[in-house]
Amino acid sequence: MNGKSETTEKYLKLYHDNIDKISDNSAPYLNSFREEAFGRFSELGIPTKKDEAYKYTNLSLFFDHDYASYFIPDAADFEKAEEFRCDISDMDTHGIVLLNGFYPTINEKLRQLPSGVWIGSLNAAAKKFPEIIEKHYGKYAHTDTDGLVHLNTAMASDGIFVYVPEGVILSKPVQVVNLVQAEVDSFSQHRNLIIVEKRAEFSIIICDHTLSPKKFLTNAVTEIFVGEDAHFDIIRVQNEHNAACKITHTFIHQERNSVASSNNMTLHGGLIRNSTYHYLGGEGAESHSFGLFLADKWQHVDNFVNVDHAFPHCTSNQLFKGVLDDMSTGTFNGRIYVRPDAQGTLAYQKNNNILLTDDAKMDTKPQLEIYADDVKCSHGATVGQLDGDALFYLQSRGINKREARLMLMFGFAHEVIQNIKIEPLRDRMDNLVMQRLRGELSRCASCMVKCG
Amino acid sequence: MLVINNLKATISGKNILKGISLKVKPGEIHAIMGPNGSGKSTLAAVLAGREFVEVTEGTVTYLGKDLLSMSPEERAKEGIFLGFQYPIEIPGVSMVNFMKTAVNEHRKHKGLDPLSASDFLKLMREKKEMVEIDSKLANRSVNEGFSGGEKKKNEIFQMAMLEPRLAILDETDSGLDIDALRIVANGVNKIKRPDNSFIVITHYQRLLDYIVPDVVHVLYDGRIVKTAGKELALELEEKGYDWIKKEVENSILA
């Protein structure tokens, strides 16, 4: 066994069984990374609780399971995805519907929007725009510790590609609706690449839904390049059922004076792990990392953030909040790494959690590594109940206790939601969160699956 | 309107209120003064229904009902308003949403339909002008980032919105500059009607230059030790509380 766990062995075998089929369909440049990544994965393996970054998250529940299929897309798979329409009717977006992370093959794989913007399949883009792909693909997803990122690089064959050329301001956001659906328990991995060139402005919304009540495991990697003076926002809305496990790794590389934000809104899901890596790779860059989750029953939500201040005069801000009900559990791990040259750094971190029951549990861990002198850094973490004084204040104005509790929880969540700049989405999130807190279903009206 | 009879209360086992009796009639303004630690804020907390205060003896009757058996929200809907000494900041909850929920709970209690969005905003506007609160404050989260004076003005604004029958203002004047003090006092005077009453708890006499009380009580060591007309406040301002303390001690010795 070479000291490798049984679980890891299973995924080594999965690679050997599928690599020919994967490589046959993939662009050569994507294939050129596979062998080395596979090597790294075989050294690191599937993370266990012995890995510092996964200390409180038990992946074995999902990785030990035998999935009937490793999802490699097929034209026939996409018909249902095409029928799906998101119901945020007043949100004007460029829409993409994905199935299990893959771009449909029945329409054009790559679509050109005004001003030379391209959205579509990464694999198709790798064939059509090799020079762009070679400049960016595999350049930002760096990790020496997380085997899952390497597993993705070794096996992923497609995902979303977005290219926003220099100076182009896309006023409408791109909305990606990612449907997870299969008739058997499935494991899928996709790979996204988003390129926002100099002075461009762009935002993307990624909505994850499950459409069939099977067990799903998704391991997705997204690489994002944000050029000099560019503005970029990514918002994820995760709404999946309790038998779904979603693992996302998002690597945001920022150049000089760029501003980027990431917002992970987790409404529902069995086991969720979001790793967000912010690399401040040029003077004056500014990054924001937001997250909100609402968990109940046996759900587990893990947010891992790594902010790397590599250049002087950059600003970073982290705000993560969780509301945990029943016996749900959560983890926050926020690292701020300030390199010796990164003078004039401003770095903030805040993690607040509310436990609604005695059985809910939250582990929160700030990790500050500061090697420069001229740095302003603050962090704070709280795990507690609703504020009794605030509750009384609302009651003393005639608001009943139940409603007052809801208002406080909503207010707590709204502090994260208010950072969403797209107004219809912000209103929608407020609504979904309120419904979720009231114990009503937060799924979108057109969704076919009851997430309960 | 309000009858307090021999009220005794403790906080974590410590006796704070040691037998308070007080009657407030409609249209009256009562001032409760006294040195720090005499039990003024505890009395306000009991009347508003805070759980950390335990009533061990006595009764409080409000409009013929047993006040102590009512929840804080019931008391509010029956017309009691507490102006907080330290108003609470509630990030993420907008003033508009807060007041709309509160006003509509009051309306529901009276058997009225909820206000429409436009009628509610109109009401907000009227009351904002009435109490001279900055329009922008009402668009923010409840008390979040407000200055001390803004928080107190916001209490008066909420009072104007909810039109209480009995308002208890707990050291609303503390920490206010003279302009803010005038705005707070003017707010109270505009809200005052022949059928509503105020209990104004204060440490200093200066608020009473603007809000003229009908009755002044001095609370000391958990008891009301002196009750008189508005001239008592001036006397206290001039002589401080020491002579009262002496009087009390002498009477105990005698």
What keywords describe this structure?
heterodimer; A: 452 residues; alpha/beta; 2 domains; nine-stranded parallel β-sheet; B: 254 residues; Rossmann fold; 12 strands
Question: Overall 3D geometry of chain B?
Answer: globular
Apparent shape of chain A: globular
Oligomer: heterodimer
Number of distinct helices of chain B: 8
Biggest pleated-sheet summary of chain A? 12 strands, mixed
The CATH architecture of chain B? 3-Layer(aba) Sandwich
Give a verbal description of the structure:
The complex is a heterodimer of chains A (about 450) and B (about 250). With about 450 residues, chain A is of the alpha/beta class. Chain A has two domains: about 5-280, no CATH class; about 385-450, no CATH class. Chain A has eleven helices and 21 strands. Chain A has helices at about 5-25, 30, 35-45, 60-65, 80-85, 120-130, 130-135, 145-155, 390-395, 400-415, 425-435; strands spanning about 70, 95-100, 110-115, 115-120, 160-165, 175-180, 185-190, 190-195, 200-210, 215-225, 230-240, 245-255, 260-270, 270-280, 285-295, 300-310, 315-325, 330-340, 345-355, 360-370, 375-385. In chain A, the strands form two sheets. In chain A, strands 1, 3, 4, 5, 7, 8, 10, 12, 14, 16, 18 and 20 form a twelve-stranded mixed β-sheet that branches. A nine-stranded parallel β-sheet of chain A has the order 2-6-9-11-13-15-17-19-21, covered by helices on one side. In chain A, a hairpin with a 3-residue loop joins strand 3 (about 110-115) and strand 4 (about 115-120). In chain A, about 50% of the residues are buried. Chain B is of the alpha/beta class and about 250 residues long. Chain B has a single domain, classed as Rossmann fold (3-Layer(aba) Sandwich). Chain B is built from eight helices and twelve strands. Chain B has a six-stranded mixed β-sheet, sandwiched between helices. Chain B has a four-stranded antiparallel β-sheet with strand order 2-1-4-5. In chain B, strands 7-8 form a two-stranded antiparallel sheet. In chain B, a hairpin with a 2-residue loop joins strand 1 (about 1-10) and strand 2. Chain B is globular, with a radius of gyration of 18 Å. The two termini of chain B are about 35 Å apart. The chains are: A alpha/beta (about 450), B alpha/beta (about 250).
